[in-house]
Request: fold
Amino acid sequence: MATILPPTPQNIARAAETLRAGGLVAMPTETVYGLAADATQPAAVARVFAAKGRPSTHPLIVHLSDLDQVHTWAINLSNVAQAFMRAFWPGPLTVIVRRHPNTLTAVTGGLDTVALRVPKHPVALGLIRALGTGVAAPSANRFGGVSPTTAAHVAQSLGDAVDLILDGGPCDVGVESTIVDVSQVDPEAGVAAVLRPGGVSLAELSRVAGQPVFERRSETVRAPGQLESHYAPEAPVRLVPPRELVSEAATLAAQGLRVAVLTEDTQADWPPGVVAIALPSDPARAAQRLYAALREVDERGCHVALTTLPLPEGLGLAVADRLRKAAGPRP
Ligand code: TXA
Ligand code: MG
Reply:
C-alpha cells in the first residue's frame, strides 16, 4: 500500500520532490482527491494513465497555483474565459481554453485545447507552489470507478500505483469541478458551454458571463465523464421514481438480493434485506456524501443499489449527473 502522510510542510516538500523525480502523488483538493504528476514530464504523465487504466485519448486537467501561470499553458483567452478565472479561482471550476504550443500533447490527449484549474485547497496549492509548475491530475481512482473523497479511498482504489498520498481529510465539495468550455472561436457556438456540472452552478456562470450558460452534451466521447457508465460501484445502480422506491426495494429483496437504498430516510421501516445508506436530500450535503455512499454499496456486500434523482438545481445538477452515469449501461 502507498504511504499516507499528514500534510505537514515537510511532507508537502517531500511530495514535490516525488513529483520532480517523475513520481505520482495523491493530493486532496476541495472537490475530490487528484492523482498528481508534473505536467511537464511526458513519462510522469504516462504513469498517470497507466495507474488509472485510462485511455490516452482522455485529457487531464492542469492544476495551477495562480492565475498568472495561465499564459504558460494557454493562448487566446476570451473575455469570458478571463472573467470566469477571476470570479471562480481558486475554486471548483475547470476552464477549457486553447492550448499553448508547449503544453504536452500527452496531457491534452492530442486536442488543441487544455483544461486548467486553480484548486481551493491549501495542500494542493502548497504542493503546486513547491513544484513550481503545472500539476496534471485526474481524480485518483481507477478508470470508470467511484472518485475518492478521502485518503483511504485513494489507497483502496490505487494501492501501490501511487507513490504517496497526502491526507487532507474529507473533501469539502465532494464531486468534481464544473468543466466549462470557453475555447470556441465561433461565436455561433456560444461564449461558454458546460461539459460537466460540478461545484460551480450554471446560474453562477451565467451571472458572470452576462448571458445564459447551458450544458452541452458532446457527440464525440472525449471526456470519461461523458462515457455511459462512470463513477460506478461494482453493484449495478438503478434510478427509481421516489414513489416506487419502497416497493421496488421490497420486490428485489424478496428475490433474495441484498438491496442498498441510498436515501435521506435511513430510519424508515425498510423491508427485510434492504440496507439503507445515508444520502441527504440537501444538494450540497448530498454531493459531499455521494461517493462515500456509492462505495458503501460494495463494502456492505449489496447486489444492487436503488436511489432517486435530486432536483437538478445548483449542486443537485452535478449529483444527478453522477448518479445517471453510475446507473449507465456497463461495457
Ligand atoms: O475536480 C476535479 O476536476 C478533479 C480534481 C482532482 O481537480 N479532477 C478531475 O479530473 O475530475 P478527471 O481527469 O477525472 O476529469 C477531468 C475531465 C475529464 O472528463 C477529461 O476528459 C476532461 O476533464 N477534459 C480534460 N481536458 C479536456 C479538454 N481539453 N476538452 C474537453 N474535456 C477535457
Ligand atoms: Mg475522474
